[in-house]
Write a structure and sequence with these properties.
single chain, mainly alpha, 3-stranded antiparallel β-sheet
């Protein structure tokens, strides 16, 4: 009788293991290359870079603003390195992040005001050239963010996948251990 009870318990345990692995397996099929958070940074970076290069080829580059944007992005990235790495570490503990307190809107407002200030000083044509050159310089931030997430994934032997969006600001992620 004890043997029958053990077989029954083992059968239930195997059934439960099979159920869990089927759930994970079905879920894992949805997490492809496009689901990686690094890919969700890389694809827009490639597209935006390509578009800016085409536009700047037509209107010309203002080297001063290009370098200004580059150095602003580089300095900002250097100061935010630890904070972003901590966010990636926190994703492992709690995979839902609320970005509502991010200050990205402030950056757009500053660029918008900067454009109108330049438009008054140098005129419409040169203002567009200056703003676009500044934005191309700021693109280095997106590329550095891509390399930062790849660095974190390599150092922690994990991959970050985008899971779901909960409203406008909350996003969830799945962290998978790499073999």
């Amino acid at each position: 009788m004890k043997t029958d009870g053990l077989v029954c318990l083992n059968a239930k345990a195997n059934e439960a293991k099979r159920h869990i692995s089927l759930e994970k397996g079905g879920y894992m099929k949805n997490l492809g290359w496009l689901g990686k958070e690094s890919t969700r940074i890389l694809l827009p970076a490639i597209f935006i870079t390509f578009m800016y290069l085409l536009i700047l080829r037509q209107i010309g580059i203002n080297l001063i603003f290009l370098l200004a944007g580059f150095f602003i992005a580089l300095i900002y990235f250097a100061f935010c390195w630890e904070t972003q790495m901590q966010k990636y570490d926190d994703l492992v503990k709690q995979p839902v992040i609320d970005y509502s307190n991010e200050k990205i809107g402030i950056v757009f407002i500053i660029i918008f005001l900067f454009y109108f200030f330049l438009r008054i000083i140098v005129g419409k044509e040169l203002a567009w050239q200056a703003i676009l050159s500044l934005n191309v310089g700021l693109l280095i931030y997106i590329w550095l963010s891509y390399f930062q997430i790849k660095y974190w994934e390599k150092m922690n032997h994990k991959t970050i996948y985008f899971d779901k969006k909960y409203g406008r600001w909350k996003k969830s992620y799945v962290i998978i251990e790499r073999k």
